[in-house]
UniProtKB/TrEMBL annotation:
Localization of this protein: Membrane
One GO term describing the cellular component: membrane
Transmembrane segments: 203-225
Primary location class: membrane
Keywords of this entry: Glycoprotein, Membrane, Signal, Transmembrane, Transmembrane helix
Stretches the record annotates as Disordered: 253-306
Organism: Phasianus colchicus
Protein name listed in UniProt: CD2 molecule
Residues spanning the signal sequence: 1-21
């Protein structure tokens, strides 16, 4: 059965080798914008544009013929066959068809373009409520009739998206920057707000506090280590200084008190036995000792003795 279909397609290609395939393109435009509808063929002699079953205009040999009122259509065709529609309204939405021919009347293009006119999305409104350390975030949009868009509510890695609704909400315990985006094929608007829940510690704040505590502990440990090391170095320096001073004192003492010779000469012995001279301050005059009193005898006694 599969090979039979392939054989049928090959036969059709052989019978109609120059057949043109119709392509369809979707184009989205916003209200009050300008649309340019083009096709792929070049060097065309005649171009015919229509919307649905209604003809719009025809360009043949660079002459334009309108089948509708020019002011109502708000359209014109360029030299390359492109259709230009200005000041778009939602009623301009529809299926546009173009057929292009060369000078011999041979079909060179037969394409279909779906033009969709949308209104720009409204500005979203972002609200939040904190209850028992829990955040209730809501994004709302005022929707008009026949308006289709997508609402995205994001915070970090949290993302919630819904289409063709007027509000999106979710519950979380994380404070931070929340972003509400409303978009469609022709426009996009965003509202951003930083939302915090009172009494709730942020993960970033907790990380900063923990990091600060670790840094403080490491700093204290390093400070204690440096103080102890400095004291130990100071003690080592003091010990070395004391040893040097002791060594210098010992050398000075050795220089001041030389060792006596083993066999002293008689003159050296006499010199050594002589007492050192006393300083003048210690030599004081010794007062004369009082003499004993003698009793004077009378001359008569002396005569008797004689």
């Amino acid at each position: 059965m599969y090979f039979g279909r392939i054989f049928l397609v090959k036969c059709l290609l052989l019978l109609f080798p120059k057949a043109k395939c119709t392509s369809t393109i979707n184009i989205y435009k916003a209200v009050n914008e300008t649309a340019l509808l083009s096709f792929t063929a070049e060097n065309t002699h005649e171009t015919l544009w229509s919307r649905g079953n209604e003809r719009l205009l025809q360009m043949k040999d660079k002459k334009i013929k309108y089948y509708v009122e020019k002011t109502q259509c708000r359209c014109k065709v360029l030299l390359n066959g492109t259709l230009r529609i200005e000041r778009l309204v939602k009623e301009d939405s529809g299926i546009y068809k173009v057929s292009a021919y060369d000078k011999n009347g041979k079909l060179k293009a037969n394409e279909t373009i779906v033009l969709i006119i949308l209104e720009p999305v409204p500005q979203p409104i972002l609200n939040a409520e904190c209850i028992n350390k829990t955040l209730y975030v809501k994004c709302t949009v005022k929707k008009t009739e026949d308006q289709v868009f997508t609402i995205e509510l994001t915070q970090g890695k949290i993302n919630k998206s819904q289409t063709n609704v007027t509000e999106v909400e979710f519950t979380t315990q994380h404070s931070g920057i929340y972003r509400c985006t409303v978009k469609n094929q022709v426009s996009k608007k965003t509202t951003e707000k930083e939302i915090k829940c009172p009494g709730q510690l942020n993960l970033y704040l907790i990380s900063c506090i923990a990091g600060g505590a670790v840094f403080f502990v490491v700093f204290v440990i390093l400070l204690i280590y440096c103080i102890k090391k400095k004291k130990a170095d100071r003690l080592v320096d003091d010990d070395e200084e004391r040893m040097q001073i002791h060594q210098v004192d010992k050398e000075m003492a050795m220089r001041k008190l030389p060792q006596p010779p083993s066999n002293p000469t008689p003159q050296q012995t006499c010199v050594q036995q002589m007492p050192p001279p006393q300083p003048h301050a210690q030599q004081r005059a010794v007062p004369p000792q009082p003499k004993p009193r003698t009793h004077l005898q009378a001359p008569s006694q002396l005569r008797e003795r004689h």
